[in-house]
């Protein structure tokens, strides 16, 4: 096998270098620049929003930050070298770059898969097992799980340090350097198949099963929210009128909580579905090529597979913005953070005495956009739109 490979290489050295069409180069550079550029900006915004906004630091958002970092790694390590390869037609980052860039590519790919699996399990526990979620779905535990995920994938991907090398091909008109295999391609098939099973098939099967259970709880068999169902909770109220008021308020708060959880679940389910669809072309190609003596490497189809991967890493912030009101408000606030008012706001002395009777959703990603105190201090006119919040406020302008 080794002699046949050397013979094939010697034959290719006598041939002129294959010329890549100009339109292919232009399309590649433009698409990769646009998708990777927008994806890098969007994922950085996700990280900043969660890190800088206290009420956004939830277990689910912690996993989304891990996913954003992994997507950033894929976009930088896989997308940008694709541009230089299209421009120069050769590997320009040297041997160390070959090892490190390939390592970061697979680290980002595998870490994103593990992050998706982690927040899928977290959502399942939070919704289907709320009692266990009180001590399992916490912010500190989420951080520990993420540390384990990145430690595991970091060690696993170190395998590529021993499998890569620079390949030099000499043609009549040029010498081409590529970052490729150190040994025969046939020996890499078990690695690719293991990656396919561990980081794609298993997470997708698990996500399908768990989201099926979640959908059954949230959409098919929701917890009854009829005020009559909760009448026992309020049987000690002083009057019938107060009882009805409390029941209606509790019912509205409960419906708001369920609606919020449904919206978060829909958003995360869309992330999982797009991950499965956009990774399918590349994963399928790798599996098929593992069984072919001559791999299928048509340029335009390879470009399509790469673009799907870059889209998967770039589209998540767009999903958050479209499907999450809280993320949308946080993104808008982050973009307008530098636009400070020129007029100095009036100073107010605020006395607050309020009671919250809204059921707090400890496990939901959808938390309050802004605290009550922030609302009072930022405006001279106060109105309470949230029926779940009863407050008494007195102002004395100094």
How would you sum up this structure, described in words?
This protein is mainly alpha-helical and 398 residues long. The chain has two domains: 2-335, Rhopdopsin 7-helix transmembrane proteins (Up-down Bundle), CATH 1.20.1070; 348-397, no CATH class. It contains eleven helices and four strands; from the N terminus they run ααααααββααααβαβ. It has helices spanning 2-13, 22-52, 59-88, 94-128, 130-136, 139-157, 189-220, 240-290, 299-323, 325-335, 372-378, and strands at residues 164-170, 175-181, 348-356, 389-397. A two-stranded antiparallel sheet has the order 1-2. A hairpin with a 4-residue loop joins strand 1 (164-170) and strand 2. The protein is globular. The relative contact order is 0.12.
Highlighted features:
single chain, disordered C terminus, Rhopdopsin 7-helix transmembrane proteins, mainly alpha, 398 residues, globular, two-stranded antiparallel sheet, disulfide bond, 2 domains
List the helices and strands and how they pair.
Layout: H1 2-13, H2 22-52, H3 59-88, H4 94-128, H5 130-136, H6 139-157, E1 164-170, E2 175-181, H7 189-220, H8 240-290, H9 299-323, H10 325-335, E3 348-356, H11 372-378, E4 389-397
Antiparallel strand pairs: 1-2, 3-4
Compact summary:
Belongs to the G-protein coupled receptor 1 family. This protein has 398 residues and is mostly helical. The chain has helices at 2-13, 22-52, 59-88, 94-128, 130-136, 139-157, 189-220, 240-290, 299-323, 325-335, 372-378; strands at 164-170, 175-181, 348-356, 389-397.
């Amino acid at each position: 096998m080794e002699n046949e490979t050397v013979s094939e290489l010697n034959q290719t050295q006598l041939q002129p270098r294959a010329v890549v069409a100009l339109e292919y180069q232009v399309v590649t550079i433009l698409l990769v620049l646009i998708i990777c550029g927008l994806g890098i900006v969007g994922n950085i915004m996700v990280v900043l929003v969660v890190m800088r906004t206290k009420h956004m630091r939830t277990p689910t958002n912690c996993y989304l930050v891990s996913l954003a970092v992994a997507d950033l790694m894929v976009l930088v390590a896989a997308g940008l070298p694709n541009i230089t390869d299209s421009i120069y037609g050769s590997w320009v980052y040297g041997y160390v770059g070959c090892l490190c860039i390939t390592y970061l590519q697979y680290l980002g790919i595998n870490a994103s898969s593990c992050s998706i699996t982690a927040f899928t399990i977290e959502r399942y526990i939070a919704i289907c097992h709320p009692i266990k979620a009180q001590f399992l779905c916490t912010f500190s535990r989420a951080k520990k799980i993420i540390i384990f995920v990145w430690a595991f994938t970091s060690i696993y991907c170190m395998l590529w340090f021993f499998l890569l090398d620079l390949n030099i091909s000499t043609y009549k008109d040029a010498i081409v350097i590529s970052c490729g295999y150190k040994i025969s391609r046939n020996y890499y098939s078990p690695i690719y198949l293991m990656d396919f099973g561990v980081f794609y098939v298993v997470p997708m099967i698990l996500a399908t099963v768990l989201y099926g259970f979640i959908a059954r709880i949230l959409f098919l068999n929701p917890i009854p929210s009829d005020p009559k169902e909760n009448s026992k909770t309020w049987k000690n109220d002083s009057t019938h009128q107060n009882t009805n008021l409390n029941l209606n308020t509790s019912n509205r708060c409960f419906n708001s909580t369920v609606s919020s959880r449904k919206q978060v679940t829909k958003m995360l389910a869309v992330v999982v579905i797009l991950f499965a669809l956009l990774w399918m072309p590349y994963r399928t190609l790798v599996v098929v090529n593992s069984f072919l003596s001559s791999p299928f490497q048509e340029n335009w189809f390879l470009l399509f597979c790469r673009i799907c991967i870059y889209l998967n890493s770039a589209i998540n912030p767009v999903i958050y913005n479209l499907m999450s009101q809280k993320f949308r408000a946080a993104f808008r606030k982050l973009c307008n953070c530098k636009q400070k008012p020129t007029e100095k706001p009036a100073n107010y002395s605020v006395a607050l005495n309020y009671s919250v009777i809204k059921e707090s959703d400890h496990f939901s990603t959808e938390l309050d956009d802004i605290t009550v105190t922030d609302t009072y201090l930022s405006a001279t006119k106060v109105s309470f739109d949230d029926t779940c919040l009863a407050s008494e406020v007195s102002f004395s302008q100094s």
